[in-house]
Write a structure and sequence with these properties.
heterodimer, A: 151 residues, mainly alpha, 7 helices, 75% helix, elongated, B: 68 residues, rod-shaped
């Protein structure tokens, strides 16, 4: 049962972050402006984040779906979501009204709420919970990693 | 046993980070936008005209120019 839930969560979280990564990779300019709006990061750091974060999200999502290094991916996603939640929390505390930039252009196309508010923090906390679940429950179904171990 | 498992997870985490870093480098080298951002990082001339071939200037590059 736990393995089935782990698979379900892997696919769910994997798809979300795969698309979040693709959205940011395909429109880096929008991501630059979003990061600047947060007013948290220096201009020297933003270019690194714009280049690296979308690919990290993409790889983590892909690995979760494939079930390859999925525990490490879940752990990294938990860390990443904690970072996002803290960043959005600072925005809420400062009373700013900006987009969180989580889903980039997909937010416009699919009409997904993408503002940096309490809902976004709750969403991130749920993602952290799911990631921790995948990390703690070691068993999962249909994973490439388990298949490779057997071969 | 626990320490051994944590060591294995730590190695896996490093592996994931390195793979995404490699993909980032490939994307940066291959794409025009990546090159522009890279030039910005190394504080070289970040002008769009130098980073992007004029014949291939697209909307993204123009948006980049607005940013930089």
């Amino acid at each position: 049962m736990a393995a089935a839930f782990s698979l379900l969560f892997r696919i769910l979280l994997g798809l979300i972050f795969l698309f979040a990564g693709i959205a940011k990779i395909s429109d880096p300019v929008r991501f630059i402006f979003t990061l600047r709006e947060f007013d948290l990061f220096s201009e020297a750091v933003i270019p690194f984040m714009v280049l690296y974060l979308p690919w990290l999200e993409f790889i983590l999502g892909l690995f979760l779906i494939l079930g390859l290094l999925y525990r490490a991916s879940a752990f990294l996603l938990a860390c990443l979501n904690t970072m996002f939640a803290i960043a959005i929390l600072t925005v809420v505390v400062r009373g700013m009204e900006i987009d969180c930039g989580c889903f980039g252009m997909f937010a416009d196309v699919l009409k997904i709420p993408d503002s940096a508010d309490i809902k976004a923090i709750i969403r991130n906390v749920i993602f952290i919970g799911i990631s921790v679940y995948i990390f703690i429950v070691k068993k999962t179904l249909f994973s490439l990693e388990n298949y490779l171990k057997k071969v | 046993m626990f320490l051994l498992e944590m060591k294995k997870v730590a190695i896996e985490i490093l592996l994931v980070l390195i793979i995404s870093l490699l993909l980032t480098v490939v994307y940066t080298v291959v794409s025009h936008e990546g090159m522009i951002i890279m030039k910005r990082i190394f504080k070289k001339n970040a002008s769009v005209e130098r980073a992007v071939h004029i014949s291939e200037v697209d909307v993204s590059a123009i948006k980049m120019q607005e940013y930089f």
